[in-house]
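HUMAN: Would you supply a protein with C-alpha cells?

ASSISTANT:
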Amino acid sequence: MAKRVRYYAVVSGNPDGIFNTWEGGAAPATQGVSNSKYKSYATLELAVEWYRRNVPQDCRYPSPVYHFDTNDVGPAPTGEASQASLDGMASGTHVVFTICNPETNEPLYVGETKNLERSVHRHLGAAGRKRNGISARIAALLAQGIRPVFQAVERYDTKEDALAGKSRLVKQYVQRGLALCNRTLEHREIQELYLKPVVRLDTTIGDGPFFLGSYHYSSRASLKCGLRAYLNRVPPGDLSNQIAVEKLTLLWAATSPEVEAFGFSTISTQGGICLLAELVNHTIVEFDYVRAIDLIP
C-alpha cells in the first residue's frame, strides 16, 4: 500500500510555503531556522488554511508558495450528492449519514456506509462493548432511555465521492461549533483547525480552549471544576458513567502513556475524595487528575 502524503505548512521558515515531503522539503526549511513553525496535515486544503491563519502579518508571501507540482495532487472527487432516504435506496449506493441526539437534533457523528440498516445495528451493538468515541456517546443516551437517530443525509455513486462528502459535512458541522466523535486523522485535524478559535503565533496563550479527545473545553479550569463536581456528587466506588470513564481514560492516556488504565473508582478520605485508576497490569494507583489536566499538551 502506498504511503499517504502529508502536507507541511511552514511559516517563518527558509523558505516559507507548503511542502509535500519532510526530508528534503519541510525539514531543511525549519531545522536550524529561528522562530520557524510548521504543521502537517492529511490534505492540502487543511495545510493551506493553517498557513493563512498563522503566517506573520509582515510576511513577504501572505499566500503560500507550493514547493511541489500541484498537478500531482489528485483532483477532488466531483461526484454529485443526492438527498438520501431509507425508502427505495438503490443497492450499492454509498450513503453519508449522521448519528444525532434526538433531544437537540445535533449530530454527534458523521458516517459512510453501503448498508445503513447494518450500520445502525453495528453502532447500537458496539455501545455495550466499547468505552470510547461514538460508542460511549450512544451508550450514555441509551442509559437515559434515549435512542439516537440515524439520518441518511446524502448518497453517492462511489466510495471516494462519499468519503469526500463525509469530510465536507464534518467541516460544515465543526464550523457551526459542533464537536463530533469522528476520529480518523483527517477529521481530527478538521476539528482541531476549525473548531478552535484562531490564535496567531505571536499571541500569548493562556488557559484557553482545548480538546480532550473529541470533547471541547473552554479552559482547563472548567474541566477541573466539572470533574471535581462530578466526583463529589457520585458515591464512592467504581465509576460507571461511560462518558466520565471515557474522559478519564483520555486524560490518563494523554499524560500517563506508559501503562493503560481501564477503570476508575473513588474512595473517601480525610482530605476529601481520592480518584483511583485501575491499570491493565492489575495495579491500582492514585490519579492526580488536577495535575494531569495541567499537563495536557
Q: What stands out?
A: Residues 159-175 form the longest helix (17 residues). Residues 134 and 254 are 19 Å apart (CA to CA).
